[in-house]
Design a protein that fits this description.
With 199 residues, the chain is of the alpha/beta class. Helix content is 34%, strand content 18%. It has one domain: HAD superfamily/HAD-like (Rossmann fold, 3-Layer(aba) Sandwich).
């Protein structure tokens, strides 16, 4: 994957099953093929980071400790596939708090960039929401990918994306300010990784 050395991943609906305000580590489940897909990226020398909006904390639905327990369980599941995350960032604020770290704001990117010297020109962003795509566009990522797992199918319809042909496909530039189209539309994380590896 020439030119890409960093992948920023949304968590719920992209890497794990979206359980809606997940705070019970016993309910953490990798999406089918996600562990193997991330192992392919890791084996190719990619640095993997999670970036996640966790407004359930700000809304009072669960605690930061609950979030961290879920994160620890996810990392344990990934280690079974030989995958170690380089780091993770999250926004704990409710949407109406106006927090700059809530995607598509760039607070999470700025924190990770500061800690790890990340370069947007060598970064890919993968997620299941329009806010993930806009986040990637806002930071100037080399590649943005929308997966159709989680909320992805509904978000693709909201963005007016063409129907997916095959497992993954490149898209032309499109969208409107704040709701840009992704560079790649993919069935799931495994298909997204396959497309990135091809490119």
């Amino acid at each position: 994957m020439p030119g890409i050395d960093t992948v920023l991943l949304d968590r719920d609906g992209t890497v794990i099953v979206d359980e809606h305000y997940l705070c019970d580590p016993a309910r953490v489940r990798l999406l089918p093929g996600a562990g193997q897909a991330l192992a392919r990226l890791a084996d190719a020398g990619m640095r993997l980071f999670l970036v996640s909006n966790q407004s359930g904390i700000g809304r009072g639905f669960f605690t930061e400790a609950g979030h961290l327990a879920v994160q620890a369980r996810l990392e344990a599941l990934l280690r079974e596939h030989g995958v170690r995350l380089a780091d993770a960032a999250f926004c704990l604020h409710a949407p109406d708090a106006g927090c700059p770290c809530r995607k598509p704001g760039l607070g999470q990117w700025q924190a990770l960039r500061h800690r790890h010297g990340l370069d947007p020109a060598t970064t890919a962003v993968i997620g299941d929401k329009a806010s993930d795509v806009a986040f990637g566009t806002n930071l100037g990522a080399a590649v943005t990918v929308l997966v159709l797992t989680g909320h992805g199918a509904d978000e693709a319809a909201r963005l007016g994306l063409p129907p997916l042909t095959g497992e993954a496909m490149d898209l032309p530039e499109g969208g409107v300010p704040g709701l840009p189209w992704p560079d790649i539309l993919a069935r799931d994380l495994a298909a997204a990784v396959e497309r990135l590896m091809e490119k």
